[in-house]
Amino acid sequence: MNKKHTIIHVILTGGIGSRLWPLSRKSRPKQYLEIFEGKSLFELTVERNSDIADKVIVVGNVDNCHLSRKILEKSNTDYLDIVESTPRNTAAAIAFAAFAADPDAILIVTPMDHIIEKKELYDVAVTEAIEKAADGYIVTFGIVPTKPETGYGYIEYKGENVLSFREKPNLVTAKAFIAKKNFLWNSGMFCFKASVLLDELKAFQPKVYKKAKKAWEHNQNGKLDLELSLDIPSISVDYAVMERSKKIKVIPSQFLWSDLGSFESVYDYLVSKGHPVDENGNMTIGTQNYTAFIGLKNTILIATDNANLVLQKEYSQDVKDLYNELEVEKPELLE
């Protein structure tokens, strides 16, 4: 492991997990649900990188920062808390962390809602990424796909070079990507020197850079001003930097990865951990009550105190549409 530079683990905690409603609510998004062998995704993310990073920076928002603090304090993790007053997408969130770091520090940026297994392979990939970052590259982690997944973005690559980034495809396109064998799932994880990322952001999105810098310079103990934040264009780091920079490298990674962004991926994870299903692949989550499924296959019942959801796992991506409807018709069920 290259220790010439300070290694900072940056955890992005935005997002509400709308595709995991009714388990995931605004008051307790999916990353804080302790349903993964008694731990939350946020806690697993902190643990996974604790032996790699020298410091931790958490970029969260006013609605969930207290949940992050509770977990970090329980694990005695030393961290810097950056609290966004309003979401401004990942370009700004990552810029705040880079402004807070020493210019030569190497940042490993991870979302907090991933399941990663085969940690020895993860550590190999991170070590390689740190070495490339030390040489001035911006590194993205691509996951070798195991199936034609429509819920992930893709990276077209050759060797360590990125040829293109692709949005979430339909099933036909996803199958074509898999057949070509030079596409990776886009994990949304990055590694770079703080100064390199900021230089590229300044070059490609000067307004984001300027407005994010101003908001950071006026922070109060890590809390960002609402009025200054609203001035920052809301742009993803993929669009702002990754799709434009000539300094991007990709590491094709073999560790097991899922963003658990849908009940289908949660179902697959729980099955791998021995969660019971009946002979037709039906599963219950959130209830110990006897439940019978008649004439149904691969169906999931998700039970909570004030809402239940029944769906076939193949339709998991459609939960977000239901969530959007509830925002208008029954917003109290989202809290």
Walk me through the structure.
The protein has 335 residues and is an alpha/beta fold. It has eleven helices and 14 strands. The strands form three sheets. Strands 1, 2, 3, 4, 6, 7, 8, 9 and 10 form a nine-stranded mixed β-sheet that branches. A three-stranded mixed β-sheet has the order 12-13-14, with no helix packed on it. Helix 1 (41-48) links the parallel strand 1 (7-12) and strand 2. The longest helix has 16 residues, at 119-134.
Short synopsis of the structure:
The chain is α/β, with parallel strands linked by helices. The protein has helices at residues 41-48, 65-74, 89-100, 119-134, 171-180, 194-204, 206-217, 226-230, 237-242, 263-272, 319-329; strands at residues 7-12, 55-61, 79-84, 106-111, 115-117, 138-143, 154-158, 161-166, 183-193, 248-253, 256-258, 283-285, 299-303, 308-312. It is globular and about 60 Å long.
